[in-house]
UniProtKB/TrEMBL annotation:
Pfam families in the cross-refs: SapC (PF07277)
Protein name: SapC family protein
Amino acid sequence: MSETNPAPDAGPIPAIFRAVEAVEAGRHAALRLDRRTGFAFARQLNAVPLGLTEIVAASEIPIVLSAGPVPVPVAVLGVRAEENLLVQEDGNWRPGAYVPGWLRCYPFLLLPATDAPDKLVLALESGAPLLGTEAGEPLFAEGQPTEILSAALRFAAAMRAALQDSVAFGRALSDAGLLRPQQADLTLRSGGSMRVDGFLTIDPEKLDDLPDETFLAWRRRGWVAPLYAILHSSPRWGRLLDWAAERATA
């Protein structure tokens, strides 16, 4: 399953994808998808890139920008390495909390074909616990993709487009000089403190100096709401600390 890809790179791929392979009827005819297994696969994922269209919904937790060559918006899921405070002990997602698109897309994603970079192919994580041969909905029937697989392709395409928009958004913030290195100094309820660093944030003072024509251009592109959502998510580190304390108590 594939489609044309005239658009640029979609940014970093989360570490939950380790061994991906193109979906093929011959190889994957017997596979079934069972999302009832929950989100245990993301238990050690402490941050995840966001598509532009989901930044506002995800701003209940801290959103920062990655410190790589092309900064992209990232939702912070935990305050320690390999910690996801939104995945509960039973593998379910924290009730009422936003589920990032990458985790709803898993175990599927779109990747450039190895033999044709202008073409995207639907791929899957070969060892995903959501895939098996016993329970769930089949990916193929009589050698043809089922609606489950077709829906996965549509969602993966929409997710990639949103991530490409995030890449353009992050690049524009960087080019405008609005980003600064930052760290979060956190006081733990159990005692002691810790510093989380290695990320970028938006500088409010530099944002105030942004030329009017640039701001209006960004408004036309739909970038103003996600920009301020990132700023307003800054106090949400306290929410992560509350969840960490709750987990420690449990």
